[in-house]
Amino acid sequence: MLRGFKNFLMRGDVIVVAVGLVTALAFSTLIKAFTDSVINPIIARLQGGKSVGLGWQLGAQGNTSTYLNIGSFISALIYFIIFMAVIYFLIVVPYKYTQRRRGAEVFGEPGPLKTCPECLAEDIPEAARKCRYCGSDQPRTSEPPRTA
């Protein structure tokens, strides 16, 4: 039982995922500090005056629980975009490159699709023999080469 657990942990995929997760958490903290310290003050300044942030007070003046803070949402959106760009360029692109050198295709374009004539689902793989939604038999689009 312990040998199986050890083999599971020592697989390359588990290590790659663990390193990616730790890296993502570190970048998340860095980007959160950037948006809190740089982006939020800029957004708050855009509204002008002595505003708490970019937004509207819906209830009693000074009640923070009824303040609709659009600036915070914009900051979160900028945070998300920066975070996903960092993940893509620092983790996904090098991983794709490494896997391509090994001969494996990851995050590639999906294969050709066809439409099911019964339920009209448009995302059935071209080589499928049955529809994943209604279970109907699918017509073959091209015959595979036969070997004699």
Automatic annotation (TrEMBL):
- The domain of life for this entry's organism is Bacteria
Q: Which residues cross the membrane?
A: 12-31, 73-93
What the entry lists under Pfam families is as follows: MscL
Transmembrane helix found in the keyword field:
yes
How does the protein's chain sit in the membrane according to the entry?
Multi-pass membrane protein
Q: Where in the cell is it found?
A: Membrane
Alphabetically sorted, this entry's keywords are: Membrane, Transmembrane, Transmembrane helix
Q: Which PANTHER family match?
A: LARGE-CONDUCTANCE MECHANOSENSITIVE CHANNEL (PTHR30266:SF2), MECHANOSENSITIVE CHANNEL MSCL (PTHR30266)
Name of the protein in its database record: Large conductance mechanosensitive channel protein MscL
Origin species, per record, is Streptomyces javensis
